[in-house]
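Quick one: co-fold with iron/sulfur cluster.
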Amino acid sequence: MAEILAVRDLALGFHTETGQARVLDGVNLTVRPGEIVGLVGESGCGKTTLAGAILGTLPKSITWVSHGSVSLAGADMLAGNGAEEVRGRAVTFIPQDPFASFNPLFRIGTQVMDLMRWKSPRRRPGRRFYSLARRRADRDAVIAMLEAVQLPQPARLLQKYPHELSGGQRQRVMIALALLPEPRLVIADEPTTALDVTVQAQILGVLRRLAVERGVAVLFTTHDLGAAWEICDRIVVMYAGQTAEIAPREEFFTAPRHPYTRLLLRSLPEEGRHPVGIPGNVPSPLAPPPACRFHPRCPRATGICRSQRPVLGGASGHLYACHHPEEGLLDA
Ligand code: SF4
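Sure, here it is.
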């Protein structure tokens, strides 16, 4: 099946006084229609920069793109060809912190309807035409979507200010807004990080159910492997700006091949054993280790790991970039 999103060999970064910092260096990733793909890795591995590249909203601090491509619903997001047309329509975004996305001075309903007016196909340059009938239809659609994300009394909720909603309610509103344009892909950037555990499970359940029901693909960035287990079909592991491993969910959790993935899984808390941390830190993009960027932390590193960069290879949809892959989980 043709991908809705394809990132191929993407490398980008920023200039420094001494050269170039490579924030992303050879990232590969695909998302097929209706699929939920988890993008996991430690803080600083490049997940948020990659989400910006996919949306065509890279920060100004990123000053060069050396090679690679980002194709999203037929648009070239790096060159900007068609990016405006797909952003907010074919692809939408759920932020990590929904509170920061609302203006605290206006009611939820005012802000939501402003957004609907902006998205109305009747809008013309220099003149906004938003008929009463269209406004009523949009309001009905908003209320139906708020019900779909299991928010009770949606009409009353629209009258409230952002601070009157709980974190879970605000994130449900964000999910509703992301799904309203009937997108083909939703990028969810750590959408449950700011929520407590029980609310997290509810939000993940709502997101998974609606994505499956509506056939929407989701790219779900997270550092929480438990959340990835809950909702993902496939998982992509990033390390220091590179793709380390791509695997179907079951294989990822039972038969990881990349040493970094194996160590990540061993660091999960589990009944009956203490989690074991990964020694060392994620390297800075200003001075990443040569060849395999994981080699200073890897228990399996040999000479070739320090001199030759491993390429992404494998079979049957399970890919990994490692000179010495192993199968199975590590013992505690
Ligand atoms: Fe470890 Fe070498 Fe594989 Fe890198 S290539 S993850 S250093 S074994």
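If it helps, Residues 238-320 form one domain.
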